[in-house]
């Protein structure tokens, strides 16, 4: 049993990132926990953590061990719940990583309902547009947009991201609305700066036969924040392509107008990923169930309510002060 306690001490410390938080979760003194982890390291003959005064960080050996120890944690939670007769109660700290705007628009309202239904649940929500390392950072769930590259993670699709090209009515009154792709070079482009690479996100459009065309906007205006780009669009600074969920309200109330909607590119999947499908802790299972309700309401991508696509007249005046170059670029990563 002592050996099992050492593994539980290690896994909880890895999940929470420091001995103090892990000791509170397990109800033992920090010194006791640290000694248990040290004994485990001594018995295995490997270093599991890089230690600082405030936190611990997994070594490569520690990361490999933690991946296997997560099922131990899940089983211990289930045993504790059964022994206490509280198997229906969800509790503990749930760590979630999600993109900023999607998290604000879609995830936070859902988590509000989740915490009201399960008052014993604690949340550590991290909103950022990078990609966290779930094992290294001790994260239970992460939401990712686009193609998934880490085959070691379990994934479920929960939503779609459609990209829409749009501008404000004021901009279109002054410059006119493009009717074809080759007219985009006559317009002012607002570019989104990808946080992962620092490059501009290319605009994508669908053509007949399923072909996707990419255009790289050459613009003097680059913005690295999605909400900032939406604000710039609403103030008539130019044309930009953004995820539909970022501008749903603006399109609905007429502050923005969608352009070339028939050329929307294929939607990208939005998925929730987690490290293991075996012995998933109750706090993770209930979050997965709630996120699954999003998938049920997004079986097919939705179309935006306001658009211009040939059928609607628009002013004919244009400005060619900023031009764009068509060209092929690598497929963009998720926002």
Automatic annotation (TrEMBL):
One of its GO terms (molecular function) is DNA-binding transcription factor activity. Residues 297-335 are annotated as: Disordered. The keyword Transcription regulation applies. Keywords: DNA-binding, Transcription, Transcription regulation. The keyword DNA-binding applies. Pfam families: HTH_1, LysR_substrate. InterPro entries: LysR-type_TF_proteobact-type, LysR_HTH_N, LysR_subst-bd, WH-like_DNA-bd_sf, WH_DNA-bd_sf. It comes from the Bacteria. SUPFAM superfamilies: Periplasmic binding protein-like II, Winged helix' DNA-binding domain. Residues 1-59 form the HTH lysR-type domain. Belongs to the LysR transcriptional regulatory family. This is Transcriptional regulator.
């Amino acid at each position: 049993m002592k050996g099992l306690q050492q593994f539980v001490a290690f896994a909880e410390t890895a999940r929470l990132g420091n001995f103090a938080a892990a000791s509170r979760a397990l109800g033992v003194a920090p010194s006791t926990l640290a000694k248990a982890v040290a004994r485990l390291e001594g018995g295995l003959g490997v270093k599991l953590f890089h230690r600082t005064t405030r936190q611990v960080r997994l070594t490569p050996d520690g990361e490999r061990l933690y991946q296997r120890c997560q099922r131990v944690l899940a089983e211990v939670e289930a045993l504790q719940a059964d022994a206490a007769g509280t198997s229906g109660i969800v509790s503990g700290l749930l760590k979630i990583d999600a993109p900023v705007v999607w998290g604000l628009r879609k995830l936070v309202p859902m988590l509000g309902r989740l915490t009201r239904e399960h008052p014993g649940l604690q949340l550590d929500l991290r909103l950022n547009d990078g990609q966290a390392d779930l094992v290294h950072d001790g994260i239970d769930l992460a939401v990712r947009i686009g193609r998934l590259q880490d085959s070691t993670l379990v994934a479920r699709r929960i939503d779609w991201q459609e990209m829409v090209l749009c501008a404000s009515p004021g901009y279109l009154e002054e410059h006119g609305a493009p009717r074809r792709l080759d007219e985009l070079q006559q317009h002012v482009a607002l570019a989104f700066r990808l946080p992962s690479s620092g490059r501009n996100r290319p605009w994508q459009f669908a053509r007949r036969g399923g072909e996707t065309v990419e255009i790289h906007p050459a613009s003097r205006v680059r913005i690295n924040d999605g909400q900032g780009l939406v604000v710039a669009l609403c103030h008539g600074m130019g044309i930009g392509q953004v995820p539909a969920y970022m501008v749903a309200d603006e399109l609905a109330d007429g502050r923005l107008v969608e352009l070339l909607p028939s050329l929307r590119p294929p939607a990208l999947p939005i998925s929730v990923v987690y490290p293991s499908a075996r012995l998933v802790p109750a706090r993770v299972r209930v979050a997965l169930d709630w996120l699954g309700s999003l998938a049920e309401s997004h079986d097919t991508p939705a179309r935006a309510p306001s658009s211009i696509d040939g059928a609607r007249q628009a002013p004919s005046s244009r400005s060619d002060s900023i031009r764009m170059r068509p060209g092929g670029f690598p497929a963009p990563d998720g926002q």
